[in-house]
Amino acid sequence: MPAKGKHRRPKSQRFTRSIAVAGTGGAALALPLLGATGAHAATSQSAADSVASVSNVANKAAESAPAAADKKAEAKKAAAKTYSVRAGDSLSKIAGTQNVSGGWKKLYEDNRKAIGGDPALIHPGLKLSIGKAAATSSSDSGASKTTQSSAKKAAAPKAAAVPKAAEASAAGFTLPVAGAGVGTPYKMSGSMWSSGYHTGVDFVVPTGTSLKSVGAGTVVSAGWGGAYGNQVVIQLEDGHYAQYAHLSSLSVSAGQAVTEGQQVGLSGATGNVTGPHLHFEIRTTPDYGSDVDPLAYLRGKGVSV
């Protein structure tokens, strides 16, 4: 007797529905796969376009770099000029009027070959390069900063203008000026000196530099000294005499007692000179012609110079 209220569905219907569901599921699964494939293709194409665009920009920048370097080199060359020394000129005066970056020391460094070993010995008509720039070829424009830096370091020792005098003082004696470069040495021969040679040593300093008594003593003269310009002569306690020449101003007077390191005046370019510096002598008498080697004298007193 058949059960009441129960019905059976034919198997064929269940089978058909399963196929339909499977078919529907297959279609559903296929659609995302097809979509992903399309998206992947689009993404790959966009990336390739971006790489090509970046490459083009880099190439253009590389092509423009040499041209920019050449223009910069030309601008530097255009900035350099030549100055003809006139009567009354000094390196410090020229550096000031020509706005030389680095002052007279830079000007001397750039023109050392033309000027020679003494920056004070410039003469009218001498040609000086102002704003000198190192020549740079187009092939050098691509050099790395590391290479350029190494070259500058290697060239640094050659760029030193003059040897530096040490600032250390010994007991009772000191240098006549601190931290100055030594220019024309003692006994250098030349027709510009009446004795036929340089009777002292020159310390390369700009006008207005403080000058010190190398030791204790008494001022025997302070005033105009002809070719020496404004000068101070001090009799030291050991009997030698120290002379300071070409001063711009005097800080002591004759008969005055001075101590080691006391200011005696300011450096300048008075008298027969071509530029500011201190002409310093050590003598056995207060008079011209009794000179001895001033640096050897100071070393003998324990001064490092």
Provide structural commentary.
With 305 residues, this protein is an alpha+beta fold. Among the domains are: 71-132, Roll (Membrane-bound Lytic Murein Transglycosylase D, Chain A); 181-300, Glucose Permease (Domain IIA) (Distorted Sandwich). 36% of the residues lie in helices and 19% in strands. It contains six helices and twelve strands. It has helices at 11-79, 91-97, 103-110, 112-115, 145-159, 294-300, and strands at residues 81-84, 127-130, 181-182, 201-204, 210-212, 217-224, 230-236, 241-250, 257-258, 263-267, 278-283, 291-292. The strands form two sheets. Strands 3, 4, 5, 6, 7, 8, 9, 10, 11 and 12 form a ten-stranded antiparallel β-sheet that branches. A two-stranded antiparallel ribbon has the order 1-2. A hairpin with a 7-residue loop joins strand 11 and strand 12 (291-292). Helix 2 (91-97) packs across helix 3 (103-110).
List keywords for this structure.
Glucose Permease (Domain IIA); elongated; ten-stranded antiparallel β-sheet; 305 residues; alpha+beta; Membrane-bound Lytic Murein Transglycosylase D, Chain A; two-stranded antiparallel sheet
Topology (SSEs and partners):
Layout: H1 11-79, E1 81-84, H2 91-97, H3 103-110, H4 112-115, E2 127-130, H5 145-159, E3 181-182, E4 201-204, E5 210-212, E6 217-224, E7 230-236, E8 241-250, E9 257-258, E10 263-267, E11 278-283, E12 291-292, H6 294-300
Antiparallel strand pairs: 1-2, 3-4, 4-11, 5-10, 6-7, 6-9, 7-8, 8-10, 8-11, 11-12
